[in-house]
Amino acid sequence: MPFASIGLSDPLVRGILATGYTAPTEIQSQAIPAALEGRDILGCAQTGTGKTAAFVLPILHRLSHERPQPAKGILSLILAPTRELAVQIEQAILEYGRFTRLRTLAVYGGVSIDAQFKALRRGVEILVATPGRLLDHIQRGTIVLRNVEVFVLDEADRMLDMGFINDVRRIVSLLP
Ligand code: AMP
Hints:
single chain, four-stranded parallel β-sheet, 176 residues
């Protein structure tokens, strides 16, 4: 089954083809149509089977149909357990979304928060974050989750193993 037939918009299909993928993987063909319908999804698949694109592509599809509105702020939040994973997801979004105008940022701990403030001020529609640094930004008022439409918990099992349950609960309680 080609990518175009699972309902993704043209700029996305072009982005995917430019990446060199020819067909969706199994998790992608199962998850993407359901996500495009706006359903909640719990997905399990082994590492290396294309899970990242399975949630990134429907987010890009949905949000690229909306005009960027600086006042609305973050429209999609992706939580990841580690900095490395957050950076990988940010890269995937930049790659698949190269033909969209959506702005993406990854925020994580262990680096200066000032550069993150600056990028946030310029405007971000898709935020990838590790829980601790996200809560830090929320406390400082530099991130507001009021308008989030799509929420992803990536590697949720690992996040819980790492003891993030209370942070995740707190973040979820701030989502509309
Ligand atoms: P992930 O499971 O998200 O870590 O993805 C594993 C690898 O599969 C990444 O290197 C992706 O670039 C690649 N990938 C994702 N979707 C596809 C696809 N539809 N066809 C071929 N490779 C893909």
